[in-house]
Every structure is written in structure tokens, then in C-alpha cells.
Specification:
One of its GO terms (cellular component) is cell envelope. The chain has 314 residues and is an alpha/beta fold. It is 43% helix and 19% strand.
């Protein structure tokens, strides 16, 4: 059902303002997949944000895999069709999700984007973007990689879904920093489609084909878990400087046992909590910051038990 926009709301949205008329109802949190601990931690944060109030309800959904982009588009369309009050969206594809977000805008449904950016063409159709600065995170991982392996030799990149906003920043800036600050040769990137088993097989092949590999970067949770398991199975755990991304139980154990030198962990709980809170602020008629950095922590064996790491691990 299409909502009638007040003139002030039309003017505010066209100017990129984050104020909409107050309204109660469902806030739909739609993530890239429900099969990952990272996104389940986003759900925990979203649930925490909704507790203690009765004005809004919460739904949480996502496709079976991050590569099921059409399914995610359908989830957004379904949320619009049932007249939700607001949407928190982690878009799997920057271009494919843009028309659905535009339709939400046309129906006066505020949208807060988390984790991955939408295409530039979508500017003005959503009210806030909450994410890790993936470019800065990629550079931090690259700096650590150079510290670990030096400036010559080979390092491999095990990536996830090509073209996703977070991947473009995270892997792109890792690559750019390595090339600008070392003579390291880059093997890859290889794309796991965020499937742990595929990442394991890909990493196994990379290790077999590159006996002189010095370092390897697994750029998201399922990819890094598959990478870590391949290192263990090949007997090369601890011999190659491996750095992961995200912070589930498997990756924490890999850090503790030395399979990984570190894992870069985003504030996934914070994305869910702050994403829902931001939608509620918008629905209450309050202005919000258009861009919010939810941060990243390099978790190592030295700091894994410290509060700074424990607050982001899941």
C-alpha cells in the first residue's frame, strides 16, 4: 500500500534529510544471508535495540546465501508490499538492490543501509549508511601482512563475492596498499561466493600450487574459516602468515592456536543495534548522521582476551 507523503516529507527526502513522520510498526532487518554467524550477531544487536519498547516490532530475514541476490531483492519487495515502517538492509549487490530501495523511498519507508554500500545512483533514496570503513580495514590488514612477511615474495587473496561493496573496499584497498608499499606478488583474488567448503578447496589448491607462498588473506567469515581449515589440513598452519576477517568461534580458535596471525573483526552487533536505533530515530522525526563508522579491531593472540576484542567477537 503506497503511503501519502506530506509536502514537508517530500521536501526533506529530496534534500537528503533523515526526518520522516513518526509511525509505529514493523522494522524489517534484511541481511545478505541468515546462514552466517556474522549476520546472526547483527540480529542479536537488532533484537537488543528493539527491547524495552512496544512501539515497533522486528523481523529478520535474508537469503540462503550471499550470492542469492534475486532472493534478497524479493525480500525487500515483500517488506515494502506489506507496509513495513522501516528497513535495515545489508545489500548483497550495489546495483541490484538500488531499484528496491528507490521503491521504498517512493513509499515513504525509510531505509538504513548497513555493511555494504549501494550504487551511487541510489544516493538520496536511503537515510543513513552504517558500516566498517572497509577500505581502512583492508589497509590495516595489508600493513600487518607486510610487517609479517616483508616486502618481497607472494601473498594470496581469498575473497568472497566479486563486486559487493564491502569486498570492493576491503580487498581493493588491501591490494592497492600492498602494491604501493611493497614488491609482493599477489596470487588471486579467488572468490568463494562466501561458501566455506569452496574456500577450503580453493585455498588447498593455492597452497599446492604456490609452495613459496608467504602470506594469505581470507576476506570474510566463511572464506577465512575455509582458509584456516585448509592451512591445518595441509600442515602449513603457522608456517604462512594468515590473516582472517570477522570473528566467529572457529576464527577465534585459529587465532589462539596460531593458525591465524590475526583476524580483523567488524562491529556486527553494533551494525544491527545502531541500524535499528537509527531507523527508530528517523521514525520519531529526528535527524541522524548520514554515515556512521562501526569500526574494526585486529584481534591477535596478544589481545584476544582483552575487552576491546571481546566486545566485537561473537
Amino acid at each position: 500500500m503506497k503511503k501519502t507523503l506530506a509536502p514537508a516529507l517530500v521536501a526533506g527526502l529530496l534534500a537528503g534529510a533523515a526526518a520522516v513522520s513518526a509511525q509505529a510498526g514493523e522494522i524489517a532487518v534484511i541481511v545478505k544471508t541468515t546462514s552466517s554467524n556474522f549476520w546472526q550477531n547483527v540480529n542479536k544487536g537488532a533484537q537488543a535495540a528493539i527491547e524495552g519498547q512496544s512501539e515497533h516490532t522486528l523481523s529478520f530475514d535474508g537469503p540462503a546465501s550471499e550470492s542469492a541476490i534475486a532472493d534478497q531483492v524479493n525480500l525487500v519487495e515483500n517488506a515494502i508490499n506489506r507496509g513495513v515502517s522501516g528497513i535495515v538492509l545489508a545489500p548483497s549487490d550495489p546495483e541490484a538492490l538500488a531499484p528496491a530501495v528507490k521503491r521504498a523511498y517512493e513509499n515513504a519507508i525509510p531505509v538504513v543501509i548497513i555493511d555494504s554500500a549501494l550504487a551511487d545512483s541510489a544516493q538520496g533514496t536511503y537515510q543513513a549508511f552504517l558500516a566498517t570503513d572497509n577500505c581502512a580495514a583492508g589497509e590495516e590488514v595489508a600493513k600487518m601482512m607486510i610487517d609479517e612477511v616483508g616486502t618481497e615474495g607472494k601473498v594470496a587473496i581469498m575473497s568472497y563475492v566479486a563486486g559487493v561493496g564491502s569486498e570492493i573496499g576491503r580487498v581493493g584497498c588491501f591490494t592497492d596498499y600492498i602494491r604501493a608499499n611493497s614488491k609482493l606478488d599477489i596470487v588471486g583474488p579467488y572468490y568463494s561466493q562466501s561458501q566455506m567448503a569452496l574456500a577450503l578447496n580453493q585455498t588447498t589448491d593455492v597452497l599446492a600450487a604456490n609452495g613459496d607462498l608467504k602470506g594469505i588473506f581470507g576476506a570474510n567469515e566463511p572464506t577465512a574459516v575455509g582458509m584456516g581449515r585448509a592451512l591445518v589440513q595441509s600442515g602449513k598452519a603457522g608456517e604462512i602468515a594468515a590473516i582472517g576477517f570477522d570473528g566467529n568461534g572457529d576464527l577465534q580458535q585459529f587465532v589462539r592456536d596460531g593458525t591465524l596471525k590475526a583476524t580483523a573483526v567488524q562491529g556486527s552487533f553494533q551494525m544491527g543495534e545502531e541500524g535499528v536505533k537509527t531507523v527508530m530515530e528517523i521514525l520519531a522525526g529526528n535527524k541522524v548522521a548520514p554515515k556512521i563508522d562501526t569500526g574494526v579491531v585486529l584481534v591477535t593472540p596478544d589481545n584476544i582476551d582483552d575487552p576491546v576484542a571481546q566486545n566485537v567477537l561473537y
